[in-house]
Amino acid sequence: MTSENNESTVSPMAAAVLFQASLIPLAVILAWLLGQPLLAHMELTPLLPVQVLLGTAFVFACYLLLIPFGFAWARGLESKVREMLGSLFRGRSFHWALPLSILAGVGEELLFRGVIQIALSNWFNAPVAILITALLFGLAHAITRAYFIMATLMGLYMGLIFLWSGNLLLPILIHALYDWLAISYYLRWHREEPA
User: Fold this and answer.
1) Span 105-146, pLDDT tens digits
2) CB count in 10 Å sphere of residue 103
3) Residue with the larger pLDDT of the pair 112 and 80
4) For residue 94, how many other CB atoms are within 10 A of its CB?
5) Alpha-carbon span 156 to 123, nearest angstrom
6) pLDDT of residue 26
7) Which of 33, 42, 54, 146 is close enough to 73 for a disulfide, judged by CB 3.0 to 4.6 Å?
8) Which of 153, 126, 132 is nearest to 58 (CA)?
9) How many CA atoms lie within 13 A of 129 on its CB side?
10) Selection from 171, 151, 153, 173 nearest residue 162 by Cα
């Protein structure tokens, strides 16, 4: 039974989850085609939880420190993030933040650090590979100029973390935890009151 009011469209949340999830097989297939063993760059170590917490705390603190200065670009970025999350979570439980954050951390880091950065480092030196990968990461997030800059800086940070540690799990977990904290910040602790 079909009614005119019953549209068969995919919700923004479902689209976001499907998109982030699709990055995982894409990264695995590309890694396989390039002969890059992704699992060889992942290691559970005793220090990993501490490294993840410190790495996430640093990047989240850097972001939070920008907000009080009231730069016009920071306010615009904050407004855009609030608008995107409002659209994404409209009619959805906050609990969707966790799977979305995990999928973004895994999918984006496998693709950008695990495939692109490693492939580029076969052709260029590490700093150039990290810079190109970070710019591509920024372009993939280029909703606004400020968002592009912030995503590029985040890409540089994740690239350096991966280069320093040699462990792809570290940027994956930092990315996922950062996204979850950022979504929590906007949806739970920093939601604007209705006028």
Assistant:
1) 999 999 999 999 999 999 999 999 999 999 999 999 998 888
2) 21
3) 112
4) 11
5) 18
6) 98
7) 146
8) 153
9) 20
10) 171
